[in-house]
Design brief:
The chain is of the alpha/beta class. It has helices spanning about 10-20, 40-50, 65-75, 90-95, 95-115, 150-170, 190-200, 220-230, 260-270, 295-300, 305-320, and strands at about 5, 25-30, 55-60, 80, 120-125, 175-180, 180-185, 205-210, 215, 220, 245-250, 255, 275-280. The protein is globular and about 55 Å long.
Length: about 325
């Protein structure tokens, strides 16, 4: 039985699919290849995956229930790893409808498909954004998450509640993952590391929001993939009176000040950045910091790659991929 990965041409989906294929596991990937960011980058990731004999791909929009149910009718999946979503906090301010379709309708369609043909385990992407205006640090999955400050965050929190209801009603084993600022080679062009690298190499100033007074728990992609590989094989245990549903933070557990992040990038590039200091943007939070104790207890692993190592790896990939 193959593993299904939605969003397989995306940043995390691509890296996970490649690791599974390298391990000899059959993977079915789906993606709608939308234009939110460079389709050329998505196709380049996909080209890497299509070199594996044990990888099959379908261009498919999960917001279309007929396409999704046709896929599930054709074969059974051992695990479903749902990474397809409309990402981005700032984009949600201008294009809210896309979040309703991709993140809410699309996830509901996937839950329905899994209800009708249940996998052993459904793992889905949530986000550290769900913590919103929470002031208690570090963020724990046991804390309330009822103060989203962006529609993107609200859509991800809604996904968690939807998953809980399906676990309760249909005993579908589901695990939600609150990712904290994923970065690394093949990363998304809308993320700070990519945008800063692009600007510095082009001799343009980087935009530093809230005058640099922000902190982020940066999580390297290889650590995220290792967490996913272990988690997919450990669905929630049935417990009396509780649905088979769980949540984990996926983060380094060590927040980094934004200006230190810029300094690490300057060191990796060997170039000093021109900096344009700006106010805090709508929808942003000041600090993210993951409590990963429950993750480490469950899978015996937590992310550990240093920011210096991760940024250097990204810069190496960027220079090679874009020949700069």
């Amino acid at each position: 039985m193959p593993v299904l990965i939605t969003g397989a041409a995306g940043f995390i989906g691509f890296h996970l699919a490649r690791r599974l294929c390298e391990a000899g596991i059959e993977v079915v990937g789906v993606d709608n290849l939308n234009t939110y960011y460079s389709v050329e980058l998505k196709l380049a990731r996909l080209q890497q995956l299509l070199g594996f004999r044990n990888f099959r791909f379908h261009t498919l929009d999960i917001a279309n229930p007929d396409e999704l149910h046709q896929l599930f009718a054709g074969e059974a999946f051992s695990e479903v790893i749902h990474l397809a979503a409309q990402a981005g906090v700032r984009y949600s301010l201008d294009n809210p409808g896309t979040y309703g379709q991709a993140n809410l309708v699309g996830f509901l369609n996937l839950l329905e498909a899994c209800r009708q043909r249940p996998p052993r385990h459904l793992v889905y992407a949530s986000s550290s954004s769900v913590y919103g205006a929470n002031a208690k640090l570090p963020f724990s999955v046991d804390d309330p998450a009822e103060q989203p400050v962006s529609l993107y965050a609200a859509s991800k929190r809604a996904n968690e509640l939807m998953a809980h209801s399906y676990a309760h009603l249909y005993q579908l084993p589901v695990t939600g993952l609150r990712f904290f600022t994923a970065y690394g080679p093949w990363g998304r062009p809308d993320m700070a590391l990519f945008k800063f690298t692009q600007a510095i190499l082009a001799g343009r100033p980087i935009q530093v929001y809230n005058h640099g007074h922000m902190g982020r728990d940066f999580t390297y992609i290889d650590d995220i993939v290792e967490s996913l590989l272990r988690l997919r094989l450990k669905p929630p245990r049935p417990e009396a009176g509780k649905p088979p549903c769980q949540l984990f933070n996926i983060g380094r557990g060590q927040p980094v000040r934004l200006l230190h992040f810029v300094e690490c990038l300057e060191d990796a590039l060997g170039i000093k950045a021109q900096r344009e200091y700006l106010p805090l943007q709508a929808g942003d939070v000041l600090e993210t910091w993951a409590d990963v104790a429950s993750l480490e207890r469950w899978i015996g692993f937590s992310p550990s790659t240093s920011l210096e190592q991760g940024v250097a790896a990204f810069v190496g990939w960027y220079r090679d991929f874009y020949r700069v």
